[in-house]
Automatic annotation (TrEMBL):
It comes from the Bacteria. This is DNA-binding protein. GO terms for molecular function: DNA binding. Keywords: DNA-binding. The keyword DNA-binding applies.
């Protein structure tokens, strides 16, 4: 299995050993959700009733949930493994590490703290710079959206963004010279009901 996983990781461009990748997956699975959660057990009866009244599903874990959970865990592990450290981002951008931290602080770059150190998702970088229009897009992303959601949005095809008649990702749209305000308008809707 390690040979197949090693081949898959190489094809994906991930610079990690199969054992290290599997450790990342296990760590992500533990941190994202317990294997058999029972959401109702987290609330007293009156709160459970109120949450159920507004349509929240508090039913226990179902086997059918495993595929989506597994997909989320793998995406999280890949996002974490492909993310840059502050020092790596500074080298790529040709700036001092303090400039990278400043950009993180003012929302001109996105990242998260992992065991006390910043990690910056790779999707926001292009060549020796950042993605064109990145500041416009990040300014529109609601503050409550986690990096995994933002990464999924930026790297997932959007019907409203088309290049040569085909849906494309916000990242590809921006790299092709598309108007960042169109991406920002879509990003502003993250976390809102469809």
């Amino acid at each position: 299995m390690n040979l197949a996983l090693e081949s898959a990781l190489a094809k994906a461009g991930l610079q990690v050993t199969p054992d290290d990748f599997l450790s990342l997956v296990v760590d992500a699975a533990r941190r994202l959700a317990p294997p058999h959660p029972d959401p109702a057990s987290y609330f007293p009866p009156d709160q459970r009733d109120a949450l159920a009244d507004v349509g929240l599903d508090l039913s226990p874990h179902r086997v059918a949930d495993d595929q989506a959970r597994a997909r989320t865990v793998v995406v999280h592990a890949v996002l974490r493994d492909s993310a840059l450290t502050v020092a790596e981002a500074a080298r790529q951008l040709g700036v001092d590490t303090s400039r990278v931290r400043h950009r993180l602080g003012v929302g001109r770059l996105v990242g998260w703290k992992d065991r006390g150190s910043w990690r910056l998702p790779a999707w926001q970088f292009a060549g020796a710079g950042v993605l064109p229009g990145l500041e416009v897009v990040l300014a529109a992303v609601p503050e409550d959206q986690p990096p995994l959601v933002v990464a999924g949005f930026m790297t997932g095809e959007q019907e409203d963004l088309q290049v040569d008649g085909y849906p494309t990702t916000p990242r590809a749209w921006l790299l092709a010279g598309g108007d960042p305000r169109r991406v920002a308008a879509l990003a502003a809707q993250l976390g809102t009901p469809a």
